[in-house]
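Researcher: Quick one. two chains, 492 residues in total.
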Amino acid sequence: MAKKTPFHAIHQKEGGKLVEFAGFEMPVQYKGIKVEHAAVRNDVGVFDVSHMGEFYIHGPEALDLVQHISVNDASKLVAGKAQYTCMCYEDGGIVDDMIVYKLFEEDQYILVVNGANVDKDLAWVNSQNTFDTTVVDMSDDTCLLAVQGPKSVDTLQKLTDLDLSEIGFYSFKMGTLAGFENIVFSATGYTGEKGFEIYFDKNNVDPEAVWKAIFEAGEEFGIEPCGLGARDTLRLEMGFALYGNDITKDTHPLEARLGWITKFDKGDFVGKEALLKKKEEGNSRQLVGFVMNDERNIPRHGYEIVDESGNTIGEVASGTMSITLGKGIGMGYVKKEFAAEGNTIHIAIRKKTAEATVTRPPFIKK
Amino acid sequence: MSVPSDLKYTREHEWIKDNGDGTATIGITEFAQGELGDIVFVELEEEGFEFSADDTFGTVEAVKTVSELYAPVDGEISEINEELEDNPEIVNEDPYGKGWMVKIKLSDTSQLESLLSADQYKEIIA
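Model:
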């Protein structure tokens, strides 16, 4: 039996098409992916992403645990800042990608992980916790709404005592929202637009009242509820990785365009030795972005990537129709020698192959 | 969910209209367009394409997913809906009307009898 987020009744009322995802009944779309995508690019949209997982890490060695499991350098975080990173296995394969938040109290962090990976990640973090620190899974009590788009700040500013313009990218503050207290406003997102991810405890807040207040505040801007479908097209236009598609236990950060978060100079972390070896050897394959040359071809997860003679050189990890460009876009792993920007590769789509050009994401210029 | 009673249906969520003159018109159902979501193009085989039941005669690409079109009976394409080339969203808007896909010459009109009735199809999508 799939779980329900506190917004489930609202999704039904709004005409959301519900599908099972990450063990939850989640809306894949309401009015349609195109409308929702455009709302976020041009105005403002709201996603219920309460299926995401939140782990609260606290205790004298909280930072040591985070540093041990994270490839990025959490010692650089100051209170009120967030950091994108991933956790790796000993062999360098990716457990999950996540955001680490450093809270305002000493020795306290929150890890926000993918909804589909909550159980696996919790078991992994606990298995690595030999430190004087406690890990608490707060996922079931934590609501998360992503309010994204150029009008997101104007929408939310009406409802809070915080000055939202003061919250820089990948920073957060606690404040009020529609009369409720202890709401986390995090200037993060998965769309490439300005926006906030808003976290709150469902036991202290009336989730439906929050949703209602946000939609009343955003009405003048044409606010739309948005589903997982638009979330996917928006993130792929930016080239953001999706766990399960672009990154998995069988991929490592250096070949997944995540070298920039992998900090070898920070001390030991799980997977470091394997990743250092891979760094020395060089990648045999690379995650690349590509744009289809002909607009009538859409790449999909699992399609083969071939060279001009039809030899397999890789596989599509993520693909979709870019709503903004009106063209097929995707990301996929290809052999190193085909990974250079501007190269022509070929995607096997059913009975034919279609040309694509290796393109460095983001696919749309912001 | 609209399921017109004068049409025949398949388990692959296509509708077939018997035109009474040895030809039939094929499209996808209201349920199918809803499941696919925003359709971004429809790729169809050309006029004169001959097929047997269960052969694919086209592809519907939506933003999120792709779906093949399967021939419900034996026949030959006599006309394709050219409108869909530039305006594939018609399939979302009017799946039983302007969003039709192909007209076919039937090889054996009796094959239509084996297709699902509207009531039988309603049970499948219930």
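The mean pLDDT of chain B is 96.
Researcher: Thanks, that's what I needed.
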